[in-house]
# Entry
Amino acid sequence: MSNVTSVTLPDIGDYKSVEVIEILASIGQSINKDDSLITIESEKASMDIPSPHDGTVVELRVSVGDEISEGSLILLLDSNQSVDNQNVEPNSKPKESVEQSKKSSLNKTIEVVNESNDVIKEFNEKASSQKDPIPTFSKPLVTQQNANIHSHASPAIRRFGRELGVELERITGTGRKGRILKSDVEQFVKKQLSKTPNGSIKKPDISAEKITVDFSQWGSIEIKPLSRIQKRSGPRLLNAWIGIPHVTNHEEVDITDLEDFRKTYDQEDGNKDFQITLLPFLMKAIAVALNAFPQFNSSLAANETDLILKKYINIGVAVDTQNGLIVPVIKDIDKKNVRNLAAEILELSAQARGGKIKLEDLQGGCFTISNLGGIGGRSFTPIVNPPEVAILGVSRAKIMPEWNGNEFKPRLMLPLDLSYDHRVIDGASAARFLAFLKKSLEDIRRLLL
# Structure
């Protein structure tokens, strides 16, 4: 007797939808609990969705390129069916149907992409022919009337909307079952542009800066596509750099005593497979600093006139993976000791590099650390990760001569770079924050107070 159950997408946190980028299961395949079924991708990372139990795949309900959300049906799983040729054969028709659906969806997507590119080209030509060019928007265009909470649109139309800075949730679709069409996006943009006073948009139009040079005229070249994470994070980083007035303060911290203590502790502990690095000490010091300077643990409200102060401390740590940077978030830093933080950092970093990290472990950050100390360099300017208002860059520590009042002594100096949103934090506050952090790291006894 068969026992067919539905496998749906589990909780994906704050994301409205994610894209299916790979199907890892097939009809008739025997699946064990925790085997990967599909790979999904958000703007921050890609990850596999595991099977909740054993069984045999009866029917697939998703295709590559689908936008799915929490509760979306992924596939049907028969937990009692044994897999042989006879059992697989009845499913051949649904499999064929799925393949036909994929081809049909792909053809439609290609058609809409081509149409979208034509529209973008038309907009650019109109903009260049006018005295006052058509502006682009760093913030989504909004209306004051009835926003669609669930917008239905193809991936190509969503891409088209992102390129024009349009929130599709604000558009009422005229297609079948309320689906948003290319013409709906065009009409919405035209309507918003007609309401925009000349000169009221100050953000630069960076579309003119796109490179169109034929580099092959000077020698051989190779075209290599960006990783999926780079494609998704790129627009976010660009918007952050343009939309946030960045300022970066630099400081050097004497960590000679801290490093001596860290090495002594590791030697006494004797566990060669688990050694505490500088990072958890840095996170504890930042947690104390965030309590002392609450504006650094805040976010600017949507109305840009209020400040949301957070009463919890979650810190993200940028991890370098083969697909790009991923930022796992360590929760409740102020409630954990250094050893526990070191273990959690090690675990989440391994999950991030292996593509197994959960969505909830990428959300809820209050402050971010970008640590390049293991690679090198003396300083850099990290980009603020919105909706956060500050980020700390860490470069490689170096032995430097420091004057102690009587003579120069060799000391291990750690460069720190604090980038912040100047709308929320002024230069004096940033200098005080770094000075406080410097004192805490130079004498870790302060962390006990």
In short: Residues 316 and 392 are 10 Å apart (CA to CA). The chain has three domains: 4-83, 118-210, 247-448.
